[in-house]
Design goal:
The chain has helices spanning 30-40, 50-63, 71-82, 107-117, 128-136; strands spanning 4-11, 15-17, 45-49, 84-88, 100-103, 122-125, 142-148, 156-157, 168-175, 181-187. It is an alpha/beta fold.
């Protein structure tokens, strides 16, 4: 059975995007890419909201072929092309996309079924709307929060739609030279 693992950059005051949806405040560099890539290599399935999926699909399939491709571009492009993609979208219904499954209704049932059939964890990148939908159903098992040393003051909050108190267990933390801190938390399910 696979877990849903959410990877998200967040400002110190809890936002995943600025008010206009901007992400230009996020710090990404080879040190962070290398750290994340080690985790990505352990799975073969990614989950996205529609907007993030379309952004990924417009870049990663050909990123390795570009003359300016970095080591990260080459590695992640290779992984992305072979990975199964799951997209949460009400508007992409009926699309026949290779290696892509679209979930448009019955979110809790579909995700539970997906987790039970997965041979590895299912990684979710960004996708604030999808993250909020999964949080509302307590379907995220693990969070990798990349806390950026910036205060946005306002924007799209990370934690939204949570119905009940949710206990998390800190598994590990990593401080990067840029000042970004990765906090890896597991969801503590009540027995």
């Amino acid at each position: 059975m696979g877990n849903i693992v959410s990877f998200v950059h967040v400002s110190l005051d809890g936002f995943v995007a600025s008010s206009n949806g901007g992400l230009d405040w996020i710090i990404v560099n080879e040190e962070i890419f290398d750290y994340v890539e080690q985790r990505i290599k352990k799975t073969n399935m990614a989950l996205y909201g529609r907007v993030t999926y379309q952004m990924m699909e417009s870049y990663w399939p050909t990123a390795a072929d570009q003359p300016t491709a970095t080591k990260h571009d080459i590695e992640h492009s290779r992984w992305y092309k072979q990975a199964t993609k799951v997209v949460l979208s009400r508007t992409m219904q009926g699309k026949n996309l290779p290696q892509t499954k679209i979930i448009s209704s019955n979110l809790a049932d579909e995700i539970t079924q997906l987790k039970q059939g997965a041979g590895s964890d299912i990684l979710m990148f960004g996708s604030p709307t999808a993250t909020h939908a999964l949080m509302a159903e307590n379907l995220i098992d693990e969070y990798w929060l990349f806390v950026n040393p910036i205060l946005l003051g306002q924007g799209v909050p990370l934690f939204k739609g949570i119905k009940n108190r949710t206990a998390l267990k800190l598994v590990t933390s990593k401080i990067f030279s840029s000042g970004v801190i990765c906090l890896q938390y597991e969801y503590k399910r009540e027995n």
